[in-house]
Amino acid sequence: MSSLTSTAMFVAPLLALLVIWAIIVPVFEINPRIFPSVGMVGSAAMDSIRDGTLIWHIGASLMRVGLGTIIGVVLAVPLGIAMGVSPGVSAFLTPLFRFFSVLAGIAWIPIATLWFGYGFGAIIFVIVNAVFFVVAYNTLLGVSTIPRSLRNAAASLGAGRWAILTQVLLPGALPNIVTGIRTGLGFAWRGLIAAEMIATNVGLGYMLFVARDFYRTEVIVLGMIIIGSIWLLIDRMLLVPLERATIERWGLVRRA
After folding, report:
1. Please, how many CA atoms are within 13 Å of residue 41, restricted to the half-sphere of its CB?
2. Higher pLDDT residue, 8 or 33?
3. Torsion angle of alpha carbons 170, 174, 176, 179, nearest 10°?
4. CA-CA to 65 of 20 to 30 Å: which in 58, 189, 212, 238?
5. Is the pLDDT of residue 256 over 60?
6. Opening angle at CA 131, ends 147 and 97, nearest 5
7. CA distance 160 to 144
8. Other Cβ atoms within 10 Å of 92 Cβ, number
9. How far apart are CA 85 and CA 81, in angstroms?
10. What is the mean pLDDT of the segment spanning 129-142?
């Protein structure tokens, strides 16, 4: 399947939804306070681009989710490797991981605002939480799938701990790590929007929250469209190619 055909198939359902929306709202004369028309949302988009607020909100949200994801990955990968190579560490931490993985992300918002106040720190904490457990668990799975005989063979050939880590464990676990990052970033994006509704005065979540107070449904729908579109772009243009390249690089699949 060509890239053009693939892109067309991906975009077609979104265009169909847009057409249905453009038809239904005027035909049924839906009150704009309940749901806006396509034209109202387009006008809201142009206004927010002209005054710079939309770019400001998008930039703030992307910066937070990027920083929080990086911190979460940097903390999670070493711990996941440690759990993968040490049965004792894994046995001790697995119950804690199962407990906290349910709470990761949005559930931490109330206490995060008590610890860090309303602002940057609380939001970053929520994002790190959303990413950390998913990436650590996937790293553990990746390391666990590496045959112990392969590690022993590397050691018998004179590889030290650092060489085994960088040449055996990390490459072998990398496909799972990338999958964990893709999943964790999805959780982080949702957690970010929820946290911004409560703990800050700038960002896409904040934009939605303020628009609700003034019954500006066109801004709310605009924000929803932007949130979904940004995630689709991140996933399709960055995460999917990265995941595909990783599994192809390490021989899990072959390029057609």
Report:
1. 16
2. 33
3. 140
4. 212
5. no
6. 65
7. 19
8. 11
9. 6
10. 92
Q: Which two tokens stand for residue 68?
A: 């929080």
State which amino acid sits at residue 87: P
Pairwise CA distance, residues 217 & 236, whole Å = 28
pTM: 0.87
* Local structure of 202: helix, strand or coil: coil
The tokens describing 110, both together, are: 């109330």
Contact 50, 42 (CB under 8 A): no
Residue 244 tokens, joined: 């595909």
Tokens of residue 209, six digits: 């929250």
State which amino acid sits at residue 61. S
For the stretch 43-62, what's the b/e string if a residue is b when 16 or more beta carbons lie within 10 angstroms of its beta carbon? Answer: ebbeebeeeeebeebbebbb
| Contact between 219 and 207 (Cβ < 8 Å) | yes
Q: How confident is the model at residue 168 (pLDDT cuts 50, 70, 90)?
A: confident
